[in-house]
Specification:
This protein has about 240 residues and is of the alpha/beta class. It is built from eight helices and eleven strands. It has one domain: Carbamate kinase. Helix content is about 35%, strand content about 20%. A nine-stranded mixed sheet has the order 4-3-5-2-1-6-10-11-9, with helices on both faces. The longest helix is centred in the middle third of the chain and has 25 residues. It is globular. It starts with a strand and ends with a strand.
Amino acid sequence: MKYTRILLKLSGEALMGNKGFGIDQERLMEYAREIKSIYDQGCQVAIVIGGGNIFRGIQAEKGGMDRVHGDYMGMLATVINSMAIQSALEGLGVQTRLQSAIKMEQICEPFIRRKAVRHLEKGRVVIFGAGTGNPYFTTDTAATLRAIEIEAKVILKGTRVDGIYSADPEKDKNAKKYETITFEEVYEKGLEVMDMTAFTLCKENKLPIIVFDMNKKGNLKNLIEGQKIGTLVEV
């Protein structure tokens, strides 16, 4: 196993499946089974999931809502998604702990770094909800921050495309896929991998990112075993 401790970043929109809003139960269970496949191998797994399938603070701001208010609503949306993935995993017999950057004692633990690491060491999947707990920061930044704090070996960013391309592959048939790329090259080419705050945090802490297709069965398991899947971003 190449990666013994990983942080898996999922978008909230991915949970919609073919729906236009909310959570597709079938897609949720597909993801839970993929995560269980690496959990069963002994990989220590932490998860951060977005909330865009329920609410997006930036879109709310465009509609006239206060940005801070909207961002906090978005954080609550991530907790709903986190609870959904927690329930799906536990239904498959996977031990989990949900930690939130915003205190919600009735449904999850507060985020405590040392406790999160201990859960991982004991073989529990740790899900981090509510982003960083601060407005103006994305769940990409939350994922990067938590990955650094728990000393994850890599961030696996599960998307609906199979890597990073020179252009949008859904719009440009001539778009070139990168197998590996450096952080500097991403800056130079103006490619969108993560928001700039998250990306810079990864670069400064020499934390590699792999962007891959989460919807292809077996990809996650093959990745942690060391197969070249998706696009690797490294220093």
